[in-house]
Amino acid sequence: MRISSLAAIALALTTMTPITDASADHKRTRELVHYADVTIDVITEGSGPLIILLPSRGRDSEDYDEVAQGIAEHGFRVLRPQPRGIG
Length: 87
Hints:
The chain is an alpha+beta fold and 87 residues long. It has one domain. It is built from two helices and four strands; from the N terminus they run H-E-E-E-H-E. The chain starts with a helix and ends in a 6-residue tail after the last strand.
């Protein structure tokens, strides 16, 4: 993937319209973001300045539920893309 493609995906992540995940807290949303032939599952919560949490290989983005919730409670918007091939 070229750098310009990565920048476009990052922009898509920051401007996406959230869809509420019924199984989660009302402040938490989940959405599939599409760019070209790539689809990324993203969990979003909170509002304010943006922080993106990137799980390491072999970790699910939901492994960081408590961390993301704590950050969101302190006035930040937290995005957690699900690594490809996980979940």
